[in-house]
């Protein structure tokens, strides 16, 4: 796939409607794990693929992992930005989503181009094992729905399998703290505050850039972290 091809050209309205229907159903059924009611927008997906598009060494192939692929809006953007030799692992716990992703590897214009270099894993990301290494990890996991211990375990895992100098990009939603303060039970508000502190700890230590992405429902922030080269 030529990297110059516009991602939005490939992401038809029809495909988005199909994704949205499945995502919405699964969000209703398993909200804690899904953590959103709509798939990410193409604009958010493009922000998340920043370190696949902008490469330190344009000739070195990238080993890429996406954790929490859902119905694949970010996977499509990753596929559209991949170059010859790049490989992709998609990791997702929900079997409805993994079988949908399987279909996309055959039918989607961007993903079908990289199907022979893409592996779908149906598992919690931390169970993939440490005998692997990635240059770029993109995480769609809903940290705001997890406990602080779960968030710490996931970040530890990402930084174990990320190569020194590699990048982790992930997103969350703006204003969740304010909304939870009004509508959530006190225990849930405190749990989310503790999870957020863990995320902030990692961003403060390793963050290289943070961006707000307003064209998404709900609006989101994206953080990019870099594992120090000497670690
Ligand atoms: C907020 S959705 C993001 C989906 C998609 N990446 C997007 O941006 O629209 C989070 C996804 O993470 C998956 N998930 C939750 N916990 C997971 C885990 N421990 N390992 C892998 N996937 C997980 C959920 O099933 C869900 O599809």
Automatic annotation (TrEMBL):
GO terms for biological process: methylation. Keywords: Methyltransferase, Transferase. SUPFAM superfamilies: S-adenosyl-L-methionine-dependent methyltransferases. InterPro entries: Methyltransf_25, SAM-dependent_MTases_sf. Pfam families: Methyltransf_25 (PF13649). One of its GO terms (molecular function) is methyltransferase activity. It comes from the Bacteria. Residues 64-166 form the Methyltransferase domain. This is Phospholipid N-methyltransferase. The lineage of its organism: Bacteria, Bacillati, Actinomycetota, Actinomycetes, Streptosporangiales.
